[in-house]
Amino acid sequence: METLIIRDANKNDSDLIADAILDAIGEELTMNLAGDTHTREDVHTLFKSLAEREDSQYSYLNSRIAENGEGTPMGVCVSYPGNKLIPLRRAFFNEAIEKLGWEMDSASIDSLPRETEDDEFYLDSLMTLPEFRGKGVASALIKDAKKKADAAGLPLGLLCDTDNERARRLYDSLGFLPHARRPFAGKMMDNLRLS
What we know:
The protein is of the alpha+beta class.
């Protein structure tokens, strides 16, 4: 395997972080977020803006970048303590209201189902750039997130779509175990944890 370095993200990585989030949520959900009056690029702009903030779940502060020895990005991982989700995701909804014209109030935002719980360190988004897939980048990023979870004294948790067999094989190979089922964007997902 070629050299792989994992570093903290910075604001200059916001485009890459936005790409990772769109890759993680998939094209269908991306277009659902856009609605009838906005584009995929508008949704990308939303997530780029969120990556540049310090108070967002998708912040560069919650992101780590895998690079090769030449400094070429290979992948991205976004993770944070589950007990920070509610305050962090307010930024997402406030930006969506502003940039995509969503209509929501604060009470509605805070009452939405949670994709993570307080008792886990949540791996929110993970992406390996296509040219580096199959080279251990995702595994390295997950192991890096596990170190952050260990430092916080929490198991590492994530959601996996039951239809995503490739991701499930990866998570199973790293020792993730089923913990619960949780809704995300209107679909039930498997919550897996690595203790």
